[in-house]
Amino acid sequence: MTPWQKGRVTTHDKTSDFRALNAELDRVVAYTDPVKRKQALASIWENVRDEKDDAWGMYLKGRMLMILGKPPPFCLMYLQKAIQMDPKLHQAMTTVGLLLRLAKQLPDALTMLRRAEDTAREDREASNFVKAACAADLGGLLQVMGDNEAAEEAFRRALAEDADCWPAYTSLAVLHEKNDSIEEAMATLKDAIDRLPEPAAPSGYTKEQTQCLFAAGVLATRRNEWNEALSIFTKAYEANPVHWNILSKIIQCYAAMGNMEERDSTIRKLYILVMQGKVPSDRYCREQISTEHGNILVFEMFQLAYESGKPVLFMQWEKTSPLNSPQMVSFGSNEGINRIQREAGQVPEGYRLYHIDAHGLNGAHCALEFILAQKKPPYDRVRQTMLDGMLQPMPATGGSLPTVDTFNLN
């Protein structure tokens, strides 16, 4: 039985025990079972709660306080104390640097992350993985601070230390894309994909490996290379079938390729994840539409919210809307409007009134079309009207109430 399982670190070599507990914490934070995770964290905290004089213990205490949601200044106090006790503890320097970055104290964060990388490079016991991570963390901060040249150098140092430093590939690709070097960005990500294990581990690809695949797939969609994007996203999904955002991208690929049967089949898979509580979002992007004026994104809500008046679907420009075009076109059904129209005899029993609306700047709004239906019209029924609305100048007036449409999905 290891010392921490007894409830207290009891051996004479506390530093070794606390180093082992830090490694244990790395594994615990990845637990997906919340009960198991909570129990393991409680056990680790029991061992470090009263620690005051060991550098690795103070480092562990600071990390635990972060996980427990304590204020950053409180966590920093213990982490900085650990560095004072051991000026070579680059692990604590990295954590302090990242906390300072989150606190927007970028110059101080930069100083600490530079120190962490330099110290790790001098540490004979530090693995190539750790040295690469230090360089990648520094590169990420430099990128945020706008020093792209220094950031690229840091990412390349990371890959020189460890060719499997997945975040460095993704970050390098982002730099290349910002410089309009799309081919170089894709080549960087393909280098990463070529290094992925085949097949993936039983637990799937790691978060960082999946991000490389995801970034490569997104880049392919921006180049309208939908077949390649589908291949990349499918590879990611097969290794990680609970990643709902990957399914969303696969849906977009099938839509762009005109394969509506596979699109709808994939949408059903996504809704199964929703019912299982595995989707931490109220919407997904079901289509990207390329136009000469820019990309239009189509979002669908997972839940109908007629009482609140929220839309079921909406289109919006990925960037600034062109000319006088609407900012957004929505499709939904407002319960209040339906109640009024029923009382006026305009909406028969068993029907609902749905509406497509254009939304402009400063709250401008107009109706484009009304639809009476017994069931919610599917996306393909309203897509063209919504798209036409996005591509035309913001109308001055809306449409009128139509005659009864016996549109039925039975």
TrEMBL record:
InterPro entries per UniProt: TPR-like_helical_dom_sf, TPR_rpt
Pfam families: TPR_19 (PF14559)
Record carries keyword Lipid biosynthesis: no
UniProt xrefs under SMART domains: TPR (SM00028)
Annotated TPR repeat ranges: 210-243
Key words of the record: TPR repeat
Protein family membership: Belongs to the APC3/CDC27 family.
Name of the protein this chain belongs to: Tetratricopeptide repeat protein
Natural source organism: Amphora coffeiformis
Taxonomic lineage of the native organism: Eukaryota, Sar, Stramenopiles, Ochrophyta, Bacillariophyta
